[in-house]
Design goal:
Blueprint (H helix, E strand, L loop, with lengths): L1 H33 L6 H11 L7 H18 L22 H25 L5 H28 L2 H21 L3 H20 L3 H29 L2 H11 L4 H20 L3 E5 L2 E5 L2 H16 L4 H7 L3 H28 L6 H44 L12 H28 L3 H29 L2 H24 L2 H7 L8 H31 L1 H5 L41 H5 L21 H4 L4
Antiparallel strand pairs: 1-2
Length: 623
Amino acid sequence: GAAADGVIGRDSMASKDGKTEDENSKNAINSAEAKEINLSILTTIKDSQSQHGLRHDDYMRYRQYCCRRLRRIRKSVKFLHGKTHYKKKKLDVRHIENERVLSIPLLNAERAWSYAMELKKALQKEDESRKQHHLLRRLKRAVKSSNELLELSRAVGNARTQVEAEVYASWMEGNEHIERSRWLEALASHVRSKTLCDRLARCSDLQSEERCKEIVQQLNVSIRLSTYNVKRKLKSEEKVKALKARSANIEEKLITKFLELEKEHKERESKSTSTVIVWNNTKIPVTNKHIQKALQKAAELESSGEPDSKAAETEGKDPKILALNGILAAYTKAGSQCQVDLLANEGAKLRTVILDRKATYLRNLKMYINFKKLGHKVVRSQLQAESLVEELSKQELPTKKKAKKKLLPDAIEKAIVSSLDRILEHLYSYKEVADQIKDKSSLREAEAAYIGYRALRCYYKALGFEKTGDTKSAFTLYCLCEDIKTKADRSMKNHVSKESEAKGKDLSFSMDILEARLASTTKDLKSRKYRSHALTVASDSVLQPSKSSLSLDKKGKALLERLKTYNAKSELPIAEFPVQVAATPSKPLFLDIAYHFVKFPSLNKRIESEQKKGGILSSFGLW
């Protein structure tokens, strides 16, 4: 009876314990659902990979890092497989309390994948079948861990964590299929991962968007390889396109999650204090308040285009030039503050991924500010040159009243040439920046403007020479201006400012001013060229008689030919010029050949012969 009572008691206790365990697991699941866990999977793996060896393809170092981090996390969350004896613990939903516990399957997958890539690198040197089998087992383990991460994130994680787990799991499956040469499955899984990653990048902040783009670049390489092998297998492009279209379809559950993420992203953007500049298809965050204020002030002046009316009246300058001065001052202030931040970032002793990323943002921001500054400097120099050209045209018109203070015509032309020199200098720097950022449209437009302003510089330089009386230099510069202008017209036909504005390109300086000025110079260019040519010919004919008296007298002998005779009144030259060339006989070669045929007398009699003296051994030939 006692035994029976004991059995009944144990059964009842077991049933009670079972109920409590079920209740605890249900309570854990409900609490996890109430508090969704956020684990940024893509950012975590890309940052750790770039910081721990994969910049140099050192997979062993990254695998060792994953092992150490996994051990630290297991110890901190108290999820070890026994202290003295190994007893494997299975990770369930009830164990997950924070993102550190959820990162355990992620690190398991990364450790197995890095070991597989290490074996693949070793196989390139030595072809061993055992390493190949080991590689496949490690990839299979990585896929298993990634699927475990996906299941746990579906149960515990928020919408973003679930989508990133889907991307990671499909990417890992595709890697295994590629190593096993299952090209159809590899293409399907990698195309699915790419579509999810592209959609995720639209509803992400700047940091996560960059990580998504890096993963997409990796996926494009494997998709290209899989597509090539699938085409060889199926032998039809239509089937390949149909396979890609099927694998690119997204489930309804994921579409709803993407809609939630887009709403959250819009709310986050509305509340964020940092501004983002989109320039040359790249996003640049601006977190410094001083830079934000300076750029905001420059944007306001650019939109209005008018400075304070009181300042314009007091200084008596063109209001457009004053507005440009204000814009340039704002950009200069922003650039100096950006340089201070960049120097502080580069001076940090411990380099991290966050600091390196911030340094790239600051460099891009500095380049953007420099690009905008150069464009506005070109516009300011254009306006200054146009005002000087208008003043020159007013002086050329006949007027009855004479102004008290006027610049001389050659001084105005020198000022125009100096302003054009400044434009060319700014355009050269503008071209360098456009070449660095690989903006082909801005580069071509800057090159066209550079050629056009070179033609204008030659024209006004020639005009100054013509006014001072140097008609020869003026004629050569007019000819050069005509040649450069034909090149400028040819290059500007393809790149007009109106077309660039229609395409939405950001061109800071105006091409319309240059086109109008080149059109006005073509009217006077030919007439001035012919006039300067006529003046040079006329001046040469007037100076001809005075030059003829200095010509050489060829009737008498030159001074070198009559050195013994002296004539004080002689105006003959020192030597004949040009020198008359005379033919010279070639060197005879028979003397060198005749050496072998000449018999010389012997000189043996004159040589004193010395008798050899030796001993007994020398007579026998032993010494």
